[in-house]
Amino acid sequence: MQQRSGLPESSSDITGYEDDLIVFDGECVLCSRFFRFMLNHDRNRRFSFATAQSPVGQKLYSELGLPMDDFETNLVIVRGVVYQKLDAFAAAMRVLPGPWPVLSICRFLPSILKDPLYNLIARNRYEFFGRYDTCMVPDEAIRSRFLPQGF
Is 17 left (phi over 0), alpha (psi -120 to 50) or beta? Predict the structure, then answer.
């Protein structure tokens, strides 16, 4: 498995799952909106989902050497490549149908610009957008899109 955006190398298959995956902070309003956006626009049901707080999310963050209690990045795994930060957003947009792939152009921004901008928003996401009191629990209609133990 390859990693992008500064993720440390992992010798194990971190997903154990063949489909593409998005792991997001289930308490973060902004992250949950990104999840809802992807759920609504991923018409081909390409992605599965997991919250960062779930057993699956905790395992992934641990195996990648990322903090397991401060989720400043979503993880997007596409064809075995792990993306984080703005590159994760770009990877997700790139595989959606319709006009959305044009938004993946942000991956070409130089790191000196995109990383500080992303970090500023990530560090302040609860203040800017709010925070849910508890982690999101999907209803029956969308539960099938989550990995087992993914919420």
Answer: beta
Q: What is the mean pLDDT of each run of 10 residues along the chain (151 residues)?
A: 41 55 91 93 94 93 90 90 94 96 95 92 87 74 89 86
Decide: 24 and 31 in contact? Cβ < 8 Å.
yes
> Using the 8-state DSSP alphabet, how is residue 45 labeled?
-
Amino acid residing at 74: N
Helices 85-94 and 111-123, axial angle in degrees (round to 10): 100
Type of residue at 39: L
Question: Of 91, 114, 113, 115, whose CA–CA distance to 104 is shortest?
Answer: 91
Q: d(Cα 24, Cα 148) in Å, to the nearest integer? A: 15
DSSP 18-75: SSEEEEE-TTBHHHHHHHHHHHHH-TT--EEEEETTSHHHHHHHHHTT--SS---S-E
Residue count of the chain, please give it.
Answer: 151
Residue type, 41: H
Which amino acid type is present at position 73?
A: T
DSSP state letter for 101: G
